[in-house]
Each structure stands twice: as C-alpha cells, then as structure tokens.
Amino acid sequence: MGVDQTPDAVGELFETVTVLMMRHVPAPDGLSLTAAATLGSLQRRGPLRITELANAQGVTQPSMTQLLRRLEDAGLVGRVPDPGDGRVVLVELTEAGDKTLRDRWSTRLAHLEALLGTLTDDERATLRHAAEAALPVTQKLVHTLAARY
Q1: Residue 85 belongs to a domain with what CATH number?
Q2: Does residue 23 lie in a domain region?
Q3: Is the pLDDT of residue 139 over 80?
Q4: At the N or C end, where does the chain have fewer CB atoms within 10 A?
Q5: pLDDT, tens digit, 9 for 90 and up, residues 42-89
Q6: 41 found inside a domain
Q7: Does residue 125 lie in a domain region?
Q8: Is pTM beyond 0.70 here?
C-alpha cells in the first residue's frame, strides 16, 4: 500500500509537527508566535515597512504597529529611515533581537535533541531522511506564499 498523498495526510503531518514544535519543544522567551515570526522576517529579509510586516503576518497594520511598539520597547527592533525615501520608516532587527532569535533556536534544538534521544536509531534515520526529502518542498511552499506579500 502506498503513502497517502492527499491534502489530508499532508495537513495532518504539518499539524503534528506544529504541535510538537509549539507545545512540546518550547522557547521560553515569552515571544508570541507572531512576534517571533516578525523578528524572523526581519532577520531573513532585512529592514521592512510596517505594511510589509503586517501583510506577511496576516495582521492589520494597527495590530502590527502595536506589536512593533512592544518589540521596540524590549530593544528587539528599531526604526530607521528608508534610504530610498526619507518620508518612509523601516523596521530593522537590533543585535538584541538577533541574539533573542539565535538563543530561541538553540533552546529549541536542545529540547528537540533530548526528545529525539527517546527514539531508536532506525526511527531517527527515518526522520532524518524524511526531513531531507520534505525540507526543499516545504520551503518552496513557504516561498510561494511569501511571494504573495
């Protein structure tokens, strides 16, 4: 019998991995998912307009403005003028914001490493092979969605 390739099976896989990473492999930094994703966007893409960040996170501009105010108060982001248009303000990741993301990732990897230690060698090999095969495909999905914003 072949592997189920329906959207239901893919959705179930993504849901299971999301629950694993969000609930059982926590990052105890107090950041909401939207805050962490916003910082991650700035880390990957560099300084962005507030409207770009709001669109990328699927929130309203006023909601993003409030989030950015909190992140700025925490020293994780800063506002800078757009070099191409001095009337426009961009948001950029600070060194503290970058360190927070790196620490968050390190913490999560340590939790994940301990969890993977409960598996057999064959189970870890299965996950490694699955990840190697699925990562480029899931990255393509993310890039396809990101291109819409």
Answers
A1: 1.10.10.10
A2: yes
A3: yes
A4: N
A5: 999 999 999 999 998 989 999 999 999 999 999 999 999 999 898 899
A6: yes
A7: no
A8: yes
User: Residue 3: pLDDT above 70?
Assistant: no
Give the model confidence (pLDDT) of 112-125 as tens digits.
999 999 999 999 99
For residue 96, the enclosing domain spans 7-118
Each residue of 43-55: pLDDT tens digit?
999 999 999 999 9
Question: Looking at the 3D structure of the chain, how many domains does it have?
Answer: 1
Q: With respect to residue 30, please indicate whether it lies within any of the assigned structural domains.
A: yes
What string of H, E and C letters represents the secondary structure of the chain? Answer: CCCCCCHHHHHHHHHHHHHHHHHHCCCCCCCCHHHHHHHHHHHHHCCEEHHHHHHHHCCCHHHHHHHHHHHHHCCCEEEEEECCEEEEEEEEECHHHHHHHHHHHHHHHHHHHHHHCCCCHHHHHHHHHHHHHHHHHHHHHHHHHHCCC
